[in-house]
Amino acid sequence: QVQLVESGGGLVQAGGSLRLSCAVSGSGFSINFMDWYRQAPGKQREFVGRISSGGSTNYADFVKGRFTISRDNAKNPVYLQMNSLKPEDTALYLCYLVTMNGRNYWGKGTLVTVSS
To answer: Burial level of 4, CB count in 10 A (0-12/13-18/19+)?
Structure first.
């Protein structure tokens, strides 16, 4: 069973930085790609960015130049470095994984609050 656990969220002032982590546990699978999503109160979940198995990344327009996704090795952990944070970045940030055989998994998220 694949499990994803996010950490690193918290309260930060506007203009500050946070680094979120997504730890992956389990065996018997290969990762196709991993995404970060976020969901603000009362809003739909939205895509933040992706890192593929080959290490390529892509991002939503609203975070380009401010957020960076990286990883230490093929599986663990995946990071979301967030700089120049804005109050509108306040949300629950979730990790999402898709395996090579098409299975998908969600973490429970870590809360980021940006004060003005």
So the answer is: buried
Neighbours of 111 (CB within 10 A): 12
Task: Identify whether the C-beta of residue 38 lies closer than 8 Å to the C-beta of residue 49.
Answer: no
Query: What is the pLDDT, as a whole number, of residue 84?
Result: 97
Structure tokens that stand for 68 in this block: 């960076």
Q: Are 79 and 21 within 8 A, CB to CB? A: yes
Which regions in the chain score pLDDT beneath 50?
none
Q: Which helix (H) or strand (E) holds 81?
A: strand 78-82
The conformation of residue 95, written as its DSSP 8-state character, comes to E
* pLDDT at residue number 74: 66
> Which DSSP string do the residues of 23-57 spell out, in sequence order?
EEE-SS--EEEEEEEEE-TTS--EEEEEEETTS-E
Burial 27-41 (b: 16+ CB within 10 A, else e): eebebebbbbbbeee
